[in-house]
Batch of 4 targets.
Target 1
Amino acid sequence: MADAAPRLHALVQQLLGAPFPVRVRAWDGSLAGPPDAPTLVVRNRRAVRRLLFKPGELGLARAWVSGDLDVEGDLYQALDLISGQVWQRDDDARTLTEALRDPGFRAAVRGLLRLAGPPLPPAPPREEVRRTTHLHTRRTDRRAISHHYDVGNDFYEIVLGPSMVYSCAYWESADSTLEDAQRDKLELVCRKLGLTPGQRLLDVGCGWGSMAIHAAREHGVSVVGITLSQEQAAYARKRVADAGLTDRVEIRVQDYRDVADGPYDAISSIGMAEHVGADKYLEYAGVLHSLLKPGGRLLNHQIARRPHHDETAYEVDEFIDAYVFPDGELAPLGSTVTQLERAGFEVRDVESIREHYALTLRRWVSRLEDDWRRAVRLTSAGRARVWRLYMAASALAFEQQRIGVNQVLAVRPPPSGASGLPLRSRTWN
């Protein structure tokens, strides 16, 4: 008798103590739940075992990456509905100890155990990397960066498009092209930094070289771009050579802590500081401060989380830490500004571009879905599923103000105290 889906749907509702707002299709072909909702496809009993062994985000991620779970219908809607039940903040949800005092909760767990059946939960998918501590040494940072960025340049070309910019674009409108929006972001950074011909720019976390090439070609500066990814560096060097800019752009595989050829007139750090870590952030800010000439500008483009609990603490996301950005940590904006100021910077401008990242991520998801088979061939089915889930869930997080992204412009004050910025600095010249 095909009844796995009704049983599963009822048990999940009993476990949550609330309606489960998505439809469920189980391995026996049965269906249960709201008929107009997106469908959560539970392909086998192994998915249930994964969720029982690791309730919440990590269990769902393991089942998704391994292909034990899938979604039919609108992925964004499904994630939005499920997140309201699963990804609750700790202070809004019962602890497991409290939940186990509830006879109904215990009965639901026993029912799910019977439905899941033996044996013990399988090993995590091979795409998973686990960290027990966030050391942020040169070696561990290099390994973490390699896990994320050395997936294959061809794969990133599918997701990012010709611009090869892996950070939030800057949209004139939702109808703009991704390439135009990324060009506008690079130009915005250059204008905030006040770049002029002959200056030296350090691009920290240079990726595939897009910022370095744009700044050298459009603003006549000399650029040193640094990355910890060998694949990125090789790709960026080829792009620099193809653009005829080898006399003005140097790409290095180098840790920011090892740069010793300052001073620079300006520093850009776009989507890199999330990798630095709480314990190393003041050191990061201090190193960049020491590499700038007096009066030089820093543009720090960084994702931030909303403050709660300890407002200075950094936050680690289980799924992202295990599959996407090992050792990545998000801090509130206020903590970032404080650390920059402690290092000696004067923070002159903060611009939130949260909505822009949601638009960017949705475009990346569309590009991945449109070329799905090739993406799987270039990496693996699990890796492609990681990126699809990560980017779609992140788009919702930006839209719902659970995370944000900010461009912080800071200056290393000269002895005179003159910042060098125009009186109306939002003109960025």
Target 2
Amino acid sequence: MRVAVVGGGVVGLSTTAALLQRGVDVVCYEQAGEPMAQRSAGSSRIFRLAHALPDLVRLAAVARAGFGRWESASRTSLIGRSGCVISGEQMPVWAAAMAAAGAAHEVVDGASDGLRLPARTPPSEALLDPVGGVIDVDAVRAHLTELTRGAVLRAQAYALEDSRGGATVWSSAGEARFDAVLLAAGAGTSPLAAQVGIYTPPALAHHVRFTFPFDSPVAWQCWIDTPSTDLGTYQHQTGPGSWAVGGHLDPALTAWEVGREAATTASRDAVLAYARRHLAVEPRIVDSLYCVTTPDLGDGFEFRRNGPILAVYGENLFKFAPLLGDVLAAACVDGSTPAVPDVALNY
């Protein structure tokens, strides 16, 4: 069997590695200079079990076990043990989902010793996810790059065709025929999927994460905050003395039509103002990370298929990467279309 994986982000590389382990002849197309250089970029990401749905909590736990296998194979720590805090409007729903899934968690008040946050005023109530922590993106990239060595083709896939008994991929490296194709190209998935009759959300938005310096003897936890009257944020440490903050702005300020420069300026102003008001960090931006997102997807992932071509899309997929690699590799081989409830039941 011959499979094409379009997209060399963390999901594409995870699937390529899983296919290689199954003995499948696989080519991973990546248009960037290096794998995991676009949506998967950045030195760190948040891992968490906490989600709004019990199925996603259970699948995050499966993914954490997968990261553990990668850690054993690479002999490298991939996820820190700082823990993750969730506060704000979403907290009660996430806490209920954790309870329904049987995941370890605790709901505490703002005076709890269990909170280690850079907040000038702690949240009145918060959910503690003890399994949460910071993913070492660079270490994951190194591991997956080694596993997929020789299977990644630096070429842009620009056209697909569902042809008899398989599919054809046209790329900057030429034309090639495959038995199955996986589309895992992030922002590039929708235009390619549309060529073969698969709908995935086409809207795009700009997003920027900003890093601030800090000096604290306390190891802070990752933090996801969704207040009703202020900026929603996700926050985590990106290295010694570096604290990253991403803000969830009014969609009108970061829509694709606004342009990268205007969206970046709006994001910078909002996050900097938030840091000055609420955080015990030096209110000085020392780094930023830009990426393109698909708005309104929420947490989790979805799958769509037409014949031999399967597409995957979603937000915050990095933390599910080991699980998604296995699920997508199996679907490429057997021609199935996964669904989140079925995956949660079978894993």
Target 3
Amino acid sequence: MAAVDKVEIVLAHEERATLRVGDVFLKVDPDQERTDVEVEAMTLAPVPTPQVLWRKPPVLALAAVRGKELGRIGRPSTASPAAWVAAGAAVRRLHDAPLPPWPGPGPEQYAADLESECAWLLANDILPAAVVERNREVAGAVLRPWNPVFVHGDLHVSHVFAEGDEITGIIDWSEAAQGDALRDLASLTLGHEEHLGDVIAGYGAGADIDVVRGWWSLRSLLAGRWLVEHGFDPDSPGCEFDVLRAASART
């Protein structure tokens, strides 16, 4: 690794931290089962992933991937429409791959979590009751049986990297599992609804828009408490609470 003059804190909270030192990312996570999943998922996934440089628990060292993030929630994406199409195609390759050996949460678990998190949002007066109740209704579209596929599980737009129109890497695989394909499509386009058509163009058949919208509502409702308690602001423009308000306004 070339000489560097600073350490960049990419993410830091009580559960884990990620640091960037030059062209190396150091992920510090005391939960080694989560790291086991990340390493194995990157091995199994038929899409570009970071190279594992070394692992000395609780630290995992990964090489930086080329390019830059497809975008960030709360900010307009500067990536080309073709890059978003390519991201959809990459997600399709992942979903067509053999299933990983570990299951993810099912509809029953999401239903229980939804009730718990909505109750917390209402009890703490975080959002208007009408917004919470409307999004709980929209999220109900998710709570149906699905045929499990290999999902990334945390496919935020900032976890997908592109160089020009090419997808160069997908990072942060610790929540990879068997799950609902539309969860990944919704995560990728959360806060970037204007690019949903591009993603679906690359992904192909099988994207039920009502269920994608359901996942936008579900993920935003479930994320609220965690984000608030870990020092993040889901009420920033374009972020999770804006997604919920937009859904409640949509007829």
Target 4
Amino acid sequence: MSGLPVSLIQALREVVGEAGLIADVERMHSYLADWRNAYRGQAALVLRPASTEQVAAVVRLCAEAGVALVPQGGNTGLCGGSIPDDLGAQVVLSLTRLNRIREVDAANETITVEAGVILQRLQEAAAEAGRLFPLSLGAEGSCTVGGNLATNAGGTAVLRYGNMRELTLGLEVVLPDGRIWDGLRALRKDNTGYDLKQLFIGSEGTLGIITAAVLKLFPAVRSLTTAWVALPSPRAAVELIGQMRGLCGDRLTGFELMSRQSLEFVLHHVSGVSDPFADAHPWYVLIELSDTQPDAPLNDMLEQGLGEAFERGVALDAVVAASEVQVRALWALREGISEAQNHEGPSLKHDISVPISRIPDFIARTDQALQQAFPGVRIVAYGHVGDGNLHYNVSKPLGAEDAAFKAQSEAIMQVIFDVTVNFAGSISAEHGLGQAKRDAARHYKDPLELELMRSIKRAFDPAGLMNPGKLL
């Protein structure tokens, strides 16, 4: 039973109603662990407000009582940012009932949505208006806009459209004292001082609670072509993306790199998929070109680019999707990697970024360092070459015990992060810090940066009640 004062529980119940308050331990279960079951905590209550005004009222009551809040969206994160600690005194604030699409302004190319809207529903609403919302993630059927904003999500289309920071024009935020900041401005130019919304994007709920956003829309895609290309090395991928960018410009909307180990896990564990080639190759890229014009000559561009790549030995083999079914089949190979790796035992996931030009050397250096220190580990490297973001994951050696492998997780992480920083990279590209990388950030980030971040945290949340223990 909750350790909160009965009077506070009653006041919270009056705000959110019976449907918005969960106190039963069994019913709280799904809110207290992430989807991989890698992080688990306890909570005094789970609250599910249905409006911004209810969120504000909850925040005021909890601030007055000194109760910490843990904002939560679709709970699809990989760093434990939406999971409470194990003391059972925090309140989980689920935003999933804030699920209205408030406005679609086709002339202004914007859509205003609440934080609990599922990303896939947002994509569908844009399509219904003849527009495109380009953010695309493997978890788009369950992740929410609020979570996407809180972690500054990236995904597979960053190459063309940017991450959530670039896709956002305005925010509505409940501040730690319960006041509502209405920054829902659908403006592309507003030079009236600090751009406050940027503080909340990527803040993982530590400065306030995002309740709604004005997001950019784009012209609908009317032509699309997709290819699966075999490569000899990551260096070939960097060469190929430079070539395709020069040839296709902004029509290049996807360029995803995958190692053979990544593909083997998918082929073994994901039903209904098959290897596009008869022979195995060391590396692959999934290339997507798109255009707003119907019948754009994308296949001609793709064939020209691949033809040049074959001549130079950059590409080893290629297949171009001939139908929408084949497009989905190729993307299934890419999007199935993370889930497939989980079937191989503990999966140590590392979301790093380095300059695009340094990706080949980073992979070679890190592979070598890991195999020397932890012989037999299986490295699952894949990611978004166009923005330098690699998901550099590690699975246990064949036959190794789960517990022994997990005991090496910190040492493995240190090897990867050491090389990342040596290559002028970041230890978190799009997943955030959460609780998984909070302590590592203290070691790898510039002390002055951390000092400035703490100053911002104190200014917004002096009592430290907004998602404590995360990010900082």
